[in-house]
Specification:
Layout (H helix, E strand, L loop, with lengths): L1 H18 L8 H20 L10 E4 L5 H8 L7 E5 L2 H10 L5 E4 L12 E7 L8 H14 E12 L14 H7 L4 E9 L1 H10 L3 H6 L5 E9 L4
């Protein structure tokens, strides 16, 4: 598995030079995707009876530069209750620079985080598993995430389900694979996010077209999922 961790670092390092502003928040296509995902996230929280994040303890594995954790703060989470983990040192440095000081950050392999079991109400992953091409590492990370969730809490999942023929560095994670990774969980899923190539095309013409095309479920490439850990 250590070889896969090295490979992930190499793949990210190689591709960051060709990404340009494709993932920048000021990119109108990115902004459309983020706004739609935020709306879906709020609806998912409401469905799960989560109407106040202030007391929730949350861990994000693969937190990148901290955008998702910052989003949770904006939605009412208490910074001292948030923990982030990131494999890549440059991204971790960026997260330290942008997040409130009370957010705890851990470097390295998320599957080996030195944190107590059942210590979080929510463990969050966003497009991390699609970057892991090794099944054993996926399984180890899923088991670690599940162990860190307290009974009554859950795993929050956002990732894409289809392979990208233009990017061999990622692999789609199907809903059936999510069930394999978390066999004891009770899943609630919704399909979100207009396919990125379509998004870039329609937003370039008119940003409001994002909602028109995204109304067609078969054009959505990601799933937003809550995986409930019932009381034991």
């Amino acid at each position: 598995m250590s070889n896969e961790l090295d490979a992930i670092s190499e793949r990210y390092e190689r591709r960051k030079h060709i990404a340009g502003d494709r993932y920048a928040r000021l990119n109108p296509a990115v902004n459309a995707v983020v706004q739609e995902r935020q709306t879906a996230l709020i609806k998912l929280f409401a469905q799960q009876g989560i109407r106040d994040l202030s007391a929730h303890k949350v861990l994000e594995v693969g937190c990148g530069s901290g955008a998702n954790l910052l989003e949770l703060v904006q939605l009412g989470a208490t910074p001292a209750n948030l923990v982030g983990n990131e494999l890549l040192p440059g991204r971790l440095d960026a997260a330290r620079a942008r997040l409130p000081q009370d957010v705890a950050l851990y470097a390295g392999d998320a599957s080996k985080l030195p944190l107590p079991d059942a210590s979080f109400d929510m463990v969050y992953q966003s497009t991390v598993f699609s970057s892991i091409l090794d099944d054993d590492l996926q399984q180890a990370l899923a088991q670690k995430m599940w162990s860190l969730v307290r009974p009554g809490g859950g795993v929050l999942w956002y990732d894409f389900t289809f392979n990208n023929p233009r990017n061999p560095d990622v692999r789609g994670v199907t809903v059936s694979r999510i069930r394999e990774l978390f066999p004891q969980g009770v899943m609630s899923t919704r399909r979100v996010t207009l396919a990125p190539p379509i998004t870039r095309g329609v937003v370039k013409v008119r940003p409001t077209l994002y909602g028109v095309f995204n109304a067609l479920p078969f054009l959505r490439t990601h799933v937003l999922c809550w995986i409930q850990k019932n009381d034991v």
